[in-house]
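In line with agreed milestones, work has continued on tokenised descriptions of protein folds. One protein thus recorded appears below exactly as we store it:

>
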Amino acid sequence: MLSISEAVQIKIVTRHKVSEAEIHEAFANRDGGILEDTRAENKTMPPTLWFIAETYKGRLLKIVFIQDGTNTIIKTAYEPNREEIRIYDKYKD
């Protein structure tokens, strides 16, 4: 089950112009692996995970989330920068 808090929903819509439908599309279109954010300032329990995938319209999104049992809790979603794309392309397989 995909879960997005009201605060995150407001942030991704107003700041990043990403809809919940686009997040679902990115999950459906993901063709690479899921990476763990191991940076000290972003460490969480359960771990913060992320991937980059396209929406049905070809918009590239970075989806950041936590997997808590059967719940997928969205932390943020936005268009990735060049460095994030490079990292994902290097380690996604």
